[in-house]
Give the backbone structure.
Amino acid sequence: MTKTGIIGATGYAGAELVRILSGHPDVKLTAITSRQYAGMKYDSIYSSMAGVVTLACEEFNMDSFCDKVDIIFIALPHKIPMEIVPGLIKRGKKVIDLSADFRFKDVLRYEKYYQPHTAKELLKEAVYGLCEIYFDEIKNASLIGNPGCYPTSVLLPLVPLLKENFIDINTIIADSKSGVSGAGRSLSLTAHFCEANESFKAYKVAGHRHCPEMEEILSAKAKKPVTITFVPHLVPMTRGMLTTTYVNLLKKTDSKEIRNCISSFYARHPFVRICPENQVPDTMHVRGTNYCDIGFKIDERNNRLIIISAIDNLVKGAAGQAVQNMNIMLGIDETRGLNNIPFAV
Amino acid sequence: MTKTGIIGATGYAGAELVRILSGHPDVKLTAITSRQYAGMKYDSIYSSMAGVVTLACEEFNMDSFCDKVDIIFIALPHKIPMEIVPGLIKRGKKVIDLSADFRFKDVLRYEKYYQPHTAKELLKEAVYGLCEIYFDEIKNASLIGNPGCYPTSVLLPLVPLLKENFIDINTIIADSKSGVSGAGRSLSLTAHFCEANESFKAYKVAGHRHCPEMEEILSAKAKKPVTITFVPHLVPMTRGMLTTTYVNLLKKTDSKEIRNCISSFYARHPFVRICPENQVPDTMHVRGTNYCDIGFKIDERNNRLIIISAIDNLVKGAAGQAVQNMNIMLGIDETRGLNNIPFAV
Amino acid sequence: MTKTGIIGATGYAGAELVRILSGHPDVKLTAITSRQYAGMKYDSIYSSMAGVVTLACEEFNMDSFCDKVDIIFIALPHKIPMEIVPGLIKRGKKVIDLSADFRFKDVLRYEKYYQPHTAKELLKEAVYGLCEIYFDEIKNASLIGNPGCYPTSVLLPLVPLLKENFIDINTIIADSKSGVSGAGRSLSLTAHFCEANESFKAYKVAGHRHCPEMEEILSAKAKKPVTITFVPHLVPMTRGMLTTTYVNLLKKTDSKEIRNCISSFYARHPFVRICPENQVPDTMHVRGTNYCDIGFKIDERNNRLIIISAIDNLVKGAAGQAVQNMNIMLGIDETRGLNNIPFAV
Amino acid sequence: MTKTGIIGATGYAGAELVRILSGHPDVKLTAITSRQYAGMKYDSIYSSMAGVVTLACEEFNMDSFCDKVDIIFIALPHKIPMEIVPGLIKRGKKVIDLSADFRFKDVLRYEKYYQPHTAKELLKEAVYGLCEIYFDEIKNASLIGNPGCYPTSVLLPLVPLLKENFIDINTIIADSKSGVSGAGRSLSLTAHFCEANESFKAYKVAGHRHCPEMEEILSAKAKKPVTITFVPHLVPMTRGMLTTTYVNLLKKTDSKEIRNCISSFYARHPFVRICPENQVPDTMHVRGTNYCDIGFKIDERNNRLIIISAIDNLVKGAAGQAVQNMNIMLGIDETRGLNNIPFAV
């Protein structure tokens, strides 16, 4: 059985990795690290898992950690992963990094929005882990830059439409809304219950780091530079992300053609679901699942396409997609360990 | 003291009218109607007002109601107001109608989205009660079509920019988010706690009736037909509405010019507040108040303006603006009865 | 593979049965009924299950339904089950009824709080499906009266303490708090988002029908009549139930003895978890799971025991326990199909 | 006009004081202090008050602060107030302290649960500011120990019943539930949105510092030592507190007698409202108000009284009661500045 490990297992994305990997039928979670909680059993940190996940957190040590695991997930803030990934790769490990450190091919873009990159040489071989789009590259990858949550929700519906030349890529506006867990478990006024509850607001308006990430992929697909307008908002709920994307259509078309374009692109990818005509995605429908639900409507008077996509920011937007990447790398069905039946409420 | 009455006092907008008028220093609430709760004292319907609002609801009767009141608010679903307003006007009453029935000058537009209009002759004299924009007309009006919540949040920031020729009116996209109280007190699955809680979704995508209402005003101001793209969403909170509007700029400009344009337009109108540089509106900041908070950011790479506006859908989006209209009609300070100090949380 | 069916599959308890049974490795869900949604595919009712649960709802027909299934779950309001259970039993089916109709041995008690019982003859053979307490009886049962959510949370910690004579059964006070899904999917002002959100209240104070249900079991265990005081409250959250029970201790004791009593009683029952010293249950820790978490504290100054128990009202409080009952009846591990790893948040 | 000041104005209780005092018709808020935000205008800390409260926070300086104000509110954590109150009193100021420092007559009790008291000499003259109970003492007080939120909700219904000898004071159990704002604005995992949302839990079970505070008052009223059992819980909402109190009745009685006892006691105190027969308090009914709503039910089978009381923890449980104390000290109507009409939702 494949042995997996998580570096940084106690944030919300880490906890979601723990949850999914602990229930995965084909792999075993054999090591987890945490600086803050080193030495503590996992279920003393998250009591929901009492008696279920009793593995202890350890301080990260390159050699001893690598001895225990085959595939490694990193759920740490950017900058730290690029310091440790070279060592992991050198030891022959496969790595799925949930930070931004290995998402960019264009190092200058990365350095403009983050900081100097200290493992540039790995960027070429790293694969952007948007599973349905880079499926073939992922199969043979050793290093995955797992996508951000916002880019996942924005790119999945756009890529097929871009490929089929339906949309004017100079007119993309993505208005995203995220649950509070996207801000992580760190303490901040933003995540204080009384400041988030009964509140709705935008943040980092046209200044969020996920924007260049989306633009790199869109530019690559369009084979020319693309800039978009992106505004994220904070919703008073724990999980869930919904993006409403507005884009001008390049030609007169109808719902059926749009639907065919997206449906056929994702025909063999069960985690992308297209809503029936006249229905729209709801974050509740994907809560706790790895689905990306997509709906759309043509605003005919303006020949503009309105696309709505919903994911669970912690699953398809983070840990779930990371495990999906692992499945693809292992050559097993991409849904393994991720096919829990969704809750109705 | 001016005597006021409310026809349809027990929905959420009606209850907000009751709250505001009961605390208003210059008027007296002397009659309220309700079909469902006729005969019941108001505080047996809303226990929060126990001992505070003890007026009883009555069945609406044209003559006896008109005997008791000078200014009348109507908080009923569209179609009913147009049946009773002619009688009220004939009896010399001033009327502020919160439904859509008297918001349109273009009766065909109304009839396309609602139903045949049975009091067309009153549309000419009716004034669209967007207080800061139609202040002078409101002063002398007898009949106010009180604006919808979405139009209020969309129009207030746009009108000054349109007037000063900053924006390309063919590129307006309004992405709105509303608390659940906007759906009213009627029972529906949409408003069921378990279906709205921990959920975020769009509804009536590019098909909401508030869209033609906005377009009528924008077209009037632009002196040519304007169509926009409008998508409303539902937020798991009780009160609050935030609209993110995207529009192309007609010329190179900067934050200072935009700020000056909006600020100077609203210089004498205290309920419109412009956020300081680098701050954004939050529905929590206007909860329970009649404010409309406005923030903006220029997306320079795309020469696009992003405007964010926040209101309390039940106050500036309904009952508060209705009372503001009354204040203007009475020639008293527009803030009377609406100047409660905002809550921090 | 055992074939299971659900009569009344579209309420929240029904939907939770659908979720659990669809993912159960040892049984197959072969028929579901709904009067309101007959003919519709399940995933057109609950979009979260799009592409996952595509079985269609049918009108209930005794013969055709019984042809398709071996074990039957009923998730309908009380009164209807007692009308159809005799027919199911006559056809040799095993039945797990989630209503109150088969929870009582004392028919007079049932009739006092509900209505005349029309299938009295089945009460003797019916087993009260509180799994950990009536495990042996359940094994051979044909008809299970699945416990109410409140009784489950109240009885699980009390029964071992009662058996070991720790507590004065005349002093039991149970103060329970439930999420809104306990009120079901039916429309009501109580479940309206704006009336439940930002609200906390009691309801049916000392008048809830689950009280006699608890008293029947406690009386049976104590071998004398027991009356308790029970007050349920409504919490602004979707799922979860927490009960704080107060009871006088019969003797001087300490935490260790209390812990031993409960722990040893549940030693072989994994769904009851005892919190570590100085920790307390949290409904979030059991959300979406079949666990009942129990914590306690001795108030030494008053020689009173404070017990806190948490369940997910839709799982251990309804559908999960129903499936656990089925597992026991089938002679398979009681955790089958119920051992999903809990979420951290 | 009386000049008021707030020491520690930027926590939630402080912000609520700012809100109420800024709208108070008879006093003027002339000075506010904050260590963290010294030099900043208040509306740059709480944007809801933009343009409304523009006073700047200052560092606390004894002499300059006292020069500006007549009546002083302190909203700081316990221990700090007792260091500065002697200086304020020496300068002839009237002081209302929201911490626990001046709530106790029995210094040993205080020191057992808090720390050594450094201003013991003031305890004798300090008055416990439970307004309706100690009205006459408050009139002439110079120093008020403003009650805790839990004690306010527990004591208001109990004192009249205790005085009239209805209840067995050895059997009091108070099960309280509080919104998250009770935990203050400080950052903590407990107040993290994702840990509080969709969660219900107890905390400090039989170990909360408000318990000795209640016991001191109850003992004083009963003229003998009283111990109670008290368990607080955390509700996923911002504001509101509901307490369910269980107590044995000393004699056979009925609802009418209980109602008369409480009603007549509070006949001249408008902030205590008794719910009509068969209705129960709801935190939503008192949100943003200074009311304490009280309901009750006799559990006749056990001759036990169940009392339910609801307050807004930040208003009647903190800042509102503090202002009510000020009103009484000033000899003005106790409702001045606190009589905003309640919201329906």
